């Protein structure tokens, strides 16, 4: 990168946004700027550097080798900048700035909206973003400030804290023909994950039951819930059941799963008092919200559990 001359941090902010979104449109939404303006800014940055930072195609913007190296450097600089800004907020009673949480879509759809809305209501200058992805969020690339996962990561410079356990059961419409044994499921339309898109072994619910055929599949928990509401049967988070009152738990004694959510952060953020305060509040409120929703599910289970 010899001869590189970057005018200011704002150029790096634009570069990082485009790199993370892998295109102008997503970056424009993040930065609240026009895509054509971002395109001109990237072009100006590449002229300043004297080399291409992205391979541009109809599918999006992919980083060149130089772009990858620049992203690593810019991401590290961003961490230091955010840490410096956090120092100024350390004594503030309220949280401010922007915090992005990556999460699997079960938590993102049924738990996080209530939780982050309550936190933001108490901290009106705080902007919270929920990144719902059917895969593990890449914290090293700063896709998010912190991530919720269904199993603790085993590699990387990460800190992991358990949030809480949660329960899952088989569910189907309450007006469907009764199911009294696992063998009865063979005549039902099974709903589950697309088999080759299960990104974590903890999500392979049906495999443990010996159900290899999935009639209606999606990589989204929220879509699976809607498919079950249309007459299928599948594994549902207990905390999602209050959002689908026409469903009931079936075979609770034969099928009862327990999983856990974990909060994962980049190790370099451990000195950020702002992120630590937010993480503490997030874990507490998520645990309380899941417990509340699961209690509601038990109360409406018609004595089945």
Automatic annotation (TrEMBL):
PANTHER family tied to this protein: HTH-TYPE TRANSCRIPTIONAL REGULATOR, TRANSCRIPTIONAL REGULATORY PROTEIN
Keyword Ligase attached: no
The keyword Transcription appears for this protein: yes
MF terms in GO: DNA-binding transcription factor activity; sequence-specific DNA binding
Family per record: Belongs to the LysR transcriptional regulatory family.
Keyword field: DNA-binding, Transcription, Transcription regulation
Source organism per UniProt: Yoonia litorea
Every HTH lysR-type domain range: 7-64
Top-level taxonomy: Bacteria, Pseudomonadati, Pseudomonadota, Alphaproteobacteria, Rhodobacterales
Any GO BP: DNA-templated transcription
Protein name, per record: Transcriptional regulator, LysR family
InterPro entries: LysR-type_TF_proteobact-type, LysR_HTH_N, LysR_subst-bd, WH-like_DNA-bd_sf, WH_DNA-bd_sf
Residue spans crossing the bilayer: none
UniProt cross-references to Pfam families, sorted A to Z: HTH_1, LysR_substrate
């Amino acid at each position: 990168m010899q001869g590189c001359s970057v005018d200011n941090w704002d150029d790096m902010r634009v570069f990082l946004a485009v790199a993370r979104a892998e295109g102008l449109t997503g970056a424009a939404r993040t930065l609240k700027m026009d895509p054509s303006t971002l395109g001109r800014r990237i072009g100006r940055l590449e002229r300043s550097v004297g080399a291409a930072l992205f391979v541009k195609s109809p599918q999006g913007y992919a980083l060149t080798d130089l772009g990858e190296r620049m992203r690593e450097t810019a991401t590290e600089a961003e961490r230091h900048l955010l840490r410096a800004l956090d120092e100024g907020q350390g004594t503030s009673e309220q949280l401010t700035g922007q915090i992005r949480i990556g999460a699997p879509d079960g938590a993102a759809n049924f738990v996080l909206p209530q939780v982050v809305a309550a936190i933001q209501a108490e901290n009106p200058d705080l902007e919270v973003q929920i990144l719902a992805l059917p895969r593990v969020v890449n914290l090293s690339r700063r896709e998010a400030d912190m991530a919720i996962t269904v199993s603790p990561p085993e590699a990387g410079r990460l800190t992991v804290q358990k949030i809480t356990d949660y329960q899952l059961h088989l569910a189907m419409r309450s007006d469907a023909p009764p199911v009294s044994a696992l063998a009865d499921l063979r005549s039902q339309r099974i709903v589950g994950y697309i088999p080759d898109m299960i990104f974590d072994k903890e999500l392979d619910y049906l495999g443990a039951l010996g159900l290899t055929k999935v009639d209606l599949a999606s990589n989204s928990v929220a879509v699976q819930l809607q498919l079950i509401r249309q007459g299928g049967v599948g594994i549902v988070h207990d905390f999602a059941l209050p959002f689908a009152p026409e469903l009931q738990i079936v075979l609770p004694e034969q099928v009862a799963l327990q999983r856990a959510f974990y909060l994962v952060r980049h190790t370099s953020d451990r000195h950020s008092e702002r992120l630590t305060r937010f993480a503490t509040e997030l874990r507490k409120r998520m645990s309380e919200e899941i417990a509340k929703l699961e209690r509601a599910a038990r109360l409406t289970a018609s004595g089945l559990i």
